[in-house]
Amino acid sequence: MTTLSCFIAGLPKAELHLHIEGTLEPAMMLRLAERNRQPQPFPDVETAEKAYRFNDLQSFLDIYYRSTEVLVTEEDFYDLTLAYLEKAASQNVRHAEIFFDPQAHTARGIAFATVLRGMEQACTQAHRQLGISTRLIMCILRHLSEQEGMAMLHEATRWKRWITGIGLDSSERGNPPSKFRNLYREARREGFLLTAHAGEEGTAASVKETLDLLHVDRIDHGVRCMDDPALVEELVRRAVPLTVCPLSNVKLRVFGNMQEHNLKAMLEKGLHVTLNSDDPAYFGGYVNENFTAAAEALELSFSDIVRLAENSFNASMLSIVQKKIHLLELADYARRPAPGN
Ligand code: HPA
Ligand code: ZN
């Protein structure tokens, strides 16, 4: 391990952009398919991994939704969530805000309660045994209608104790934020924290519209905001967090390679950037691999890395007191001499 990756490995951090369905590793996918007597999406792990070559967001989503079909029982959602939380805790993630896509499951006849109970049990157990805290963010699939999304929101209001936020994911192209204006208005009225994917395959205008029409608390990805200097200024002034996912962006060809990623430029502009793994089973790494890949390609400094971790706690849905506890631990870690020095 290099000095840098060693420092990243020990760094206390929060993960704020993580789709639980995107943590379905090929080996678990095959195991669950067998357990549930479902058709195998892929005959073996090697074939699954070979299929993970994407040209864009849609080619990824096609495989991602197909693979989720192996998730059927409460135990499946429990196993999936616990496996992610164990991995995250091993990477010194102290707090994780987890997206889930209920519409990908209810459309197949899986009850909303099955998904939520399985996830919640894993979160409770991981908190008790590993000390990692969690929040759940229910994502609305933007390729479906606002009316269908609204039905999910009504379901979520019955589970408010377990669901903290509402997000928006799936195909950005052709599904603008304006399509979900009423849903976000209602979600805000219900007291959910709000986030939405924007400026991933969409443009800076999509980020601007997400801010202006949906009144989100943060933006997921948002990397295309850099094409609009006035928007960058507004995001900095309003301290809107952006949950950036470098390995995802390279895999889905938002950037040609990691050297071309604009993360460093975003930090230099003063944007409130956090670093996350998005769909780690598909994009080649969990949060620490994202930190390391970005840090090496973009020559991030130790203080850039610490700032990303600081931002992750500040941008989270934790209370002020909880944030402070994590930030103190982080400051203590950052003060220690870098490993190898
Ligand atoms: N973008 C949009 N939708 C998604 C993603 C993503 O990166 N991952 C899972 N659903
Ligand atoms: Zn995402």
From TrEMBL:
Name its co-factor(s).
Zn(2+)
Q: Look up the domain of life of the source.
A: Bacteria
Which key words tag this protein in UniProt?
A: Hydrolase, Metal-binding, Nucleotide metabolism, Zinc
Q: Where is this site: Important for catalytic activity?
A: 221
Q: Where is the Adenosine deaminase domain?
A: 12-324
Record flagged with keyword Zinc: yes
Give the record's cofactor note, including how many are bound. Answer: Binds 1 zinc ion per subunit.
Query: Can you supply one Gene Ontology CC term for this chain's record?
Result: cytosol
- For this protein, the Enzyme Commission number is 3.5.4.2
Answer yes or no on keyword DNA-binding: no
Active site: residue positions: 200 (proton donor)
* UniProt enzyme class: hydrolase
Catalytic activity field: adenine + H2O + H(+) = hypoxanthine + NH4(+)
Q: List the Gene Ontology MF annotations in alphabetical order.
A: adenine deaminase activity; zinc ion binding
Pfam families, sorted: A_deaminase
Q: Which residues bind Zn(2+)?
A: 17, 19, 197, 278
Q: Which residues bind substrate?
A: 279
Q: Matching PANTHER family, A to Z?
A: ADENINE DEAMINASE
Protein family according to the UniProt entry: Belongs to the metallo-dependent hydrolases superfamily. Adenosine and AMP deaminases family. Adenine deaminase type 2 subfamily.
Q: What is this protein called?
A: Adenine deaminase
Organism for this UniProt entry: Pelodictyon luteolum
Kindly list the organism's lineage. Bacteria, Pseudomonadati, Chlorobiota, Chlorobiia, Chlorobiales
